[in-house]
Amino acid sequence: MELPFAESWKIKMVEPIRKSTREEREQWIKEAHYNVFQLRAEHVYIDLLTDSGTGSMSDRQWAGMMLGDESYAGASSFFNLKNMISRLTGFDYVIPTHQGRAAENVLFSYLVKEGDIVPGNSHFDTTKGHIEGRKAIAWDVTIDEAKDTQLEVPFKGNLDPKKLEKVLAEHADKIPFIIVTVTNNTAGGQPVSMKNIKEVRAIADKYGKRVLFDSARFAENAYFIKTREEGYQDKTIKEIVKEMFDNADGMTMSAKKDAIVNMGGFIATRHQDWFEGAKGFCVQFEGYLTYGGMNGRDMNALAIGLDENTEFDNLETRIKQVEYLAKRLDEFGIPYQRPAGGHALFIDAPKVLTHVPKEEFPAQTLTVELYLEAGIRGCEIGYILADRDPVTRENRFGGLDLLRLAIPRRVYTNNHMDVIAVALKNVYDRREQITRGFQITWEAPLMRHFTVQLERAK
Ligand SMILES: Cc1ncc(COP(=O)(O)O)c(C=O)c1O
């Protein structure tokens, strides 16, 4: 008999979590203005708010923490990090930052000007925020298939070459660079194929443009290339990663995802002019160039995390857990963005809560219902997160409205996945009775989902 699949690690340290009663949760979510970001973590039983900075580091990473060099300038920990990044990507210029959005802030301060257009595949919200905050336009060129959650295509994160070519042909002078987000978080943790990466490179070359990878989940993307794209089965993850970055000019990285650290990020590039242009902003916003907002010990852990998580076994364990949860949801007929993404499952809320009008935010309503059901905290990736149109100030209802269940790396077991699946089934079973959603009582002008306040729609 073939042996079943099991994790490529064993557990060395545990942290208790606590269940609560429905009455307690009713009270807590009301006090949080029905925004799960405002809940206290101790009031959450299973936390799927994000996979960002919430993973469990390895024993080697913790050992690296003890060896951190905390020198202000020229710390060996910086060179450990720089060497690892250069080895994996081929990029020689590295600027550490405290997290991914800081990398965007530093680099975009140099690259993005008012009136610019930055095409890309479903820009992540902070990326969009850093573009729109500079009065530039984040121009989405994701393939249309990504909008149909029930369509099974292997690389649903791809950029549409026709859309990309059109915007370049019409606005080339306004475009400072192209962004490729690997994997495409907003479209459901969906990967971008190597073929697509190469197509984008060719189009960029035709118009003399550079390509920036938003790389938070580059290793998961490489896993999907290995397992889904012809010609890559026999390559190692590290070989695939190198081939991906051979087609890019630079990267911003939120290391809190695929490097499995609690905090960290960086910019890396092959171009001296990008490095020279950005480095002053690093000193201004983050810190000196060899720490950029990170401790020496954090840079050591990050270097080791990058090395470990570009190995197949680690990625297989991670992605198989997401697939496991997907299979459980399939048993109950719960609709999610198909196929299962790399770091999360994205439930198609308007397909579940068919009676809740879009103006009352179905995905936010489902998020609250799941919390009330079992103390599970997911996250709305939908109409609230989409913010208002910067010109008309209308809500943007054009995209998907999803409840994201992000799975932290190496944190929960498949027993927890079973609890999540059954809790969601219970909500699904009573979906016909859920007819009203929420209305906004307060919101910030940009990136409102973190702080938005809501009340039940009347
Ligand atoms: C694709 C992508 N880019 C950028 C970021 C921003 O990174 P950070 O949260 O480290 O600032 C994230 C965070 O979730 C992300 O998923």
Give a description of the structure.
It is built from 15 helices and 14 strands. It is of the alpha/beta class and 458 residues long. It has 2 domains: 22-51 and 312-456, Aspartate Aminotransferase, domain 1 (Alpha-Beta Complex); 59-308, Type I PLP-dependent aspartate aminotransferase-like (Major domain) (Aspartate Aminotransferase, domain 2, 3-Layer(aba) Sandwich), CATH 3.40.640. The structure holds pyridoxal-5'-phosphate. Pyridoxal-5'-phosphate is lined by residues 52, 99-101, 124, 126-127, 181, 185, 214, 216, 254, 256, 265.
Can you lay out the helices and strands and say which pair or pack?
Elements: H1 22-31, E1 46-47, H2 59-66, H3 76-89, E2 93-97, H4 100-111, E3 117-120, H5 125-132, E4 137-140, H6 161-171, E5 178-181, H7 194-206, E6 211-214, H8 218-228, H9 237-246, E7 250-254, E8 265-269, H10 272-285, H11 296-308, H12 312-332, E9 344-348, H13 349-352, H14 362-374, E10 376-377, E11 379-381, E12 402-406, H15 414-429, E13 438-442, E14 453-456
Parallel strand pairs: 1-10, 3-4, 5-6, 6-7
Antiparallel strand pairs: 2-8, 7-8, 9-12, 11-12, 13-14
Helix pairs in contact: 1-14, 2-11, 3-11, 4-5, 4-10, 6-7, 8-9, 12-15, 14-15
Bound molecules: pyridoxal-5'-phosphate.
